[in-house]
Amino acid sequence: MKNLNWILIFSLFSFTFLTSCDDDDEPTVNTATFETNFSGLEDLGDDYAYEGWLIVDGNPVSAGIFEVDANGIASRTSFEVGADDLAAATTYVLTIEPSPDSDPAPSPVHILAGDFSGNSAALTVGHGAALATDFTAATGTYILATPTDMDDTNEASGVWWLDNSAATGPVAGLDLPELPEGWAYEGWAVIDGTPVSTGVFTSATGADGGANYSGTQAGPPFPGEDFLTNAPAGLDFPVDLTGKTVVISVEPVPDNSAAPFTLKPLVGAVSADAPVHAPLGMDNNAANTNPSGTVSK
Fold first, then answer.
1. Distance (Å, rounded) from C-alpha 293 to C-alpha 113?
2. What does the alpha-carbon distance between residue 57 and residue 233 come to, in Å, rounded to a whole number?
3. How far apart are CA 168 and CA 267, in angstroms?
4. What is the dihedral of CA 278, 279, 280, 285, to 10 degrees?
5. What is d(CA 68, CA 47) in angstroms, rounded to the nearest whole number?
6. Of 133, 135, 99, 106, which is closest to residue 256 (Cα–Cα)?
7. Residue 98 class from Cβ within 10 Å (0-12 exposed, 13-18 middle, 19+ buried)?
8. I want to staple 179 with a disulfide (CB 3.0 to 4.6 A). Which of 45, 183, 187, 272 is the partner?
9. Residue pLDDT, tens place only, 81-116
10. Which residues pair with 117 in a beta bridge?
11. Is 166's pLDDT higher than 90?
12. Which of 141, 142, 143, 156 is nearest to 228 (CA)?
């Protein structure tokens, strides 16, 4: 019996020793923490989230997922990653991702990016790994008109982004940069506090993707909309757009919100005495709506 007891004790000791040795042989991954600070990001709702990426040797490494509430406050600002990855990272990119997300790769919707200089990176929409433009050179011209019906008494109930001042005929009223994959432009009229879409587009020349409220006649080959039928709840069409606001926004694709996204490079306050059929200008609003951020190692 004594021999059996010693055999059991020795076996248990040997098992414990070998297990401890195996644990010691496991590679240890050193981690490091970095801090983020963002402004101008908006709540994406329940179906999407923001995800950061470190670019290491040209490859994206996930650097944390977070949400933003209705006040623009991020759910997290401190993130832990591999120390070697953080030390070797040359660029930080912020994307918009589905939530939950089954794809381990970044989506094409890159909203902010910045290169590390020392231990920090300043993030902008104009970085080449984001939207590659800051929209500060964008310009816009529009007219009030309702070309999709035969009624000339409601001409202030439509907005079209065209310039009809040339004798040779109308030309595009928007001068906007080409957008990368994952983004599109959208026109809006803000009617009594309610933003109503005029349609999504990627080119200032050619009709947009919306004609939800127009009449039965063909509209001009430019972005725009007549507000004549199918008025949203709480609104009545036709509507007088004088005294209202028109907006061009930059939207993520896909877009899960019925409201304009945070990027609104062009805004036009339609004066109370604005004439119909005459070109009206928009203000560049990019500096007021471009999100930004910093990352600190």
1. 9
2. 52
3. 27
4. 160
5. 12
6. 99
7. middle
8. 183
9. 999 999 999 999 999 999 998 999 999 999 999 999
10. 120
11. yes
12. 156
Place of tokens 């020392």: 118
The identity of residue 59, as a single letter, is N
CA 173 to each of CA 144, 206, 292: distance values in angstroms, whole numbers, following the listed order: 12, 11, 28
CA pair distance 71, 48, nearest whole angstrom: 17
Confidence of residue 28 (pLDDT cuts 50, 70, 90): low
Q: Indicate the residue type of 106.
A: P
Decide if 140 contacts 266 (C-beta within 8 A). yes
- Asked if residues 198 and 159 have their Cβ atoms less than 8 Å apart, the reply is yes
Distance CA 173, CA 220 (A): 12
Residue with tokens 């080959």: 221
